Amino acid sequence: MRTLHVVTHPEATHHVEGVVGGWYDSQLTPAGVRAAVSIARALRARIPDDAEVELFSSDLRRTLRTADEVAELFGVAPVLDARLREKSYGEAGGRPQEWLDRRFVPPPAVGERMDHDEGVPGAETKGVWARRVYAAMDEILLSPCEHQIIVTHGGSLTCVVASWIKMPIESAGYAGFRAPSGSITTLREHDFFHNRQVVSLGDTRHLDSTAG
Question: The pTM is what?
Fold first, then answer.
């Protein structure tokens, strides 16, 4: 059976500084680096030693640093893909969160949500964001590899899971799959029925040893 292990990068500097992430190229904090080590060890414990493994990662520093820890234990080089980045918040990236909060225009409860203008110059719409993550997923799944690791961001995890269950793009505007920083989400496809399961969402049990 194909299994996808989807990692959301752990604590980064923008988290503790209270600034907007998105495409702002923050890096892992010391606590984040320790968590990345725990993530890699947890994945190594879950995946058989003789299994073929592929590793994909967003190209931002916080995800790449996480992927590097995984790469070291598995002996594979990460394939970097900018399409796995977090949503771009345009001019808000790297600014205080309250700067974005004052300008942000939330999407309507009904009507057009995917191409909604959130009021921040240069920011991606949900539609642009979702389409690029969906395209990355389509390419990743062309490979028959049984174990694939994807290192991405908390927001983009929703697009990864929505793509996995073949949710239409227009419906993804309402989707929200929440996963904490440093989590592992497990997705599995059955060989016979080809059902696509969400086995676990946002598992953080491996982080217990890094707390404090």
Answer: 0.95
